[in-house]
């Protein structure tokens, strides 16, 4: 990758050069447009539905001056679900952006490499073998995702971690985790199997403030850390030798960024179950909007939040009677996107 494409934008420095910031006008405009879209879908989600509320009623309720009925609809039913969708979408979008740039491959997504399957394995162990609570299921998903990431890193390490080796090892671990998940479901009782299968679909139905708090804390800590390391991420795209020559501790930076990606994906999966393909598609779409060599973390996070909130809004309004999980919508559309992506990459390789 050329240096001019990896490190783009205008560098702004304070007097004395103590603080510097790289500013890309197009990326900033895309972020503003995506933030407006997030605000718009949030407003629609809070005001429409079986019981419609005006913007004034929602605003009064958010300020603590609403009627008791509006308080229940907004604070108990709609706002936690909306915030969970936004935060999980942002976490998956940022996680995918980090992993795709680290691996240098558009297929470098937590879904494809196996982090999500590893989180699912941890959650299924708690559901099937330990009969745990929702909090314990979330903890199991976190542990499963972390163990999967460590295993992939150790198996892929050979004097450093290279992109294609990392992807191939991840796909192998993903297949093994999928087999383990299927085995766990076959060993479960009917009740546990139904609970496990419902969790594996991925949904924000019934999610509350506990999930909002957990994912919100993870995003508040890990997203700024990833953005702080994004300059090193751009230099890593130039190659290990060039990055080392520019003063980057390659393996330490790679390990920190991998931890950020795994942490975001695992917490998001723990909150809602696996939401397939969002981490794959959001960074790619953000990269096309910003016309950057690699997706920035903030555009990818905003686009992930917007896509998941729009998907959940659509399944709520289109399927009023069945409460269709949003994971089915992302899985269907994501599968089509994966076919298009593989076809595009194949044609590019043939050109």
Task: Describe the protein's architecture and organization.
The chain is 76% helix and 2% strand. The protein has 16 helices and two strands. Helix 4 (68-103) runs antiparallel to helix 13, helix 4 (68-103) packs across helix 14 (278-290) and helix 6 packs parallel to helix 8. Residues 1-5 have low confidence and may be disordered.
Helix content: over 70%
Round the Cα radius of gyration to an integer and report it.
Answer: 21 Å
Number of strand segments: 2
Strand order of the largest sheet: 1-2
**What is the H-and-E element order?**
HEEHHHHHHHHHHHHHHH
Q: Determine the number of helices (DSSP H or I, runs of at least 4 residues).
A: 16
Beta-strand content estimate: under 5%
Q: Which blocks of ≥5 consecutive residues have pLDDT under 50?
A: 1-5
Euclidean distance between termini CA atoms: 18 Å
Largest sheet: 2 strands, antiparallel
Q: What is the structural class?
A: mainly alpha
Choose one word for the global shape. globular
What is the mean pLDDT? Answer: 83
Question: Strands, helices and their partners?
Answer:
Layout: H1 3-6, E1 10-13, E2 20-23, H2 25-47, H3 55-62, H4 68-103, H5 110-113, H6 115-130, H7 134-156, H8 163-187, H9 190-201, H10 209-228, H11 230-236, H12 240-245, H13 250-272, H14 278-290, H15 297-318, H16 326-350
């Amino acid at each position: 990758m050329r240096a001019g494409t990896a490190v783009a934008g205008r560098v702004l420095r304070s007097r004395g050069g103590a603080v510097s910031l790289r500013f890309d006008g197009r990326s900033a405009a895309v972020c503003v447009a995506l933030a407006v879209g997030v605000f718009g879908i949030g407003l629609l989600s809070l005001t429409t539905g079986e019981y419609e509320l005006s913007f004034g009623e929602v605003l009064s309720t958010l300020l603590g001056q609403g009627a008791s009925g509006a308080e229940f609809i907004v604070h108990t039913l709609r706002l936690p679900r909306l915030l969970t969708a936004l935060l999980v979408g942002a976490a998956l979008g940022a996680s995918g952006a980090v992993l795709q740039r680290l691996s240098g491959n558009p297929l470098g997504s937590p879904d494809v490499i196996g982090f999500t399957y590893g989180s699912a394995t941890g959650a299924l162990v708690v559901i099937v073998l330990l009969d745990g609570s929702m909090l314990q299921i979330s903890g199991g998903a976190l542990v499963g995702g972390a163990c999967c990431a460590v295993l992939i890193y150790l198996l892929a390490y050979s004097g450093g971690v290279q992109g294609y080796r990392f992807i191939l090892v991840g796909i192998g671990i993903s297949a093994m985790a999928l087999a383990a998940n299927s085995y766990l479901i076959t060993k479960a009782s009917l009740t546990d199997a139904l609970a496990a299968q419902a969790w594996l679909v991925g949904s924000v139905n019934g999610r509350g403030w506990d999930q909002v708090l957990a994912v919100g804390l993870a995003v508040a800590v890990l997203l700024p850390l990833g953005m702080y390391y994004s300059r090193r991420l751009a230099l890593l795209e130039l190659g290990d030798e060039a990055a080392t020559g520019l003063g980057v501790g390659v393996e330490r930076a790679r390990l920190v960024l991998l931890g950020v990606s795994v942490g975001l994906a695992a917490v998001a999966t723990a909150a809602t179950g696996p939401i397939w393909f969002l981490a794959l598609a959001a960074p790619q779409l953000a990269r096309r909007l910003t016309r950057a060599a690699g997706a920035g973390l903030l555009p990818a996070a905003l686009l992930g939040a917007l896509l998941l909130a729009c998907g959940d809004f659509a399944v709520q309004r289109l399927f009023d009677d069945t409460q269709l999980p949003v994971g089915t919508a992302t899985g269907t559309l994501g599968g089509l996107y994966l076919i298009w992506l593989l076809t595009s990459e194949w044609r590019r390789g043939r050109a």
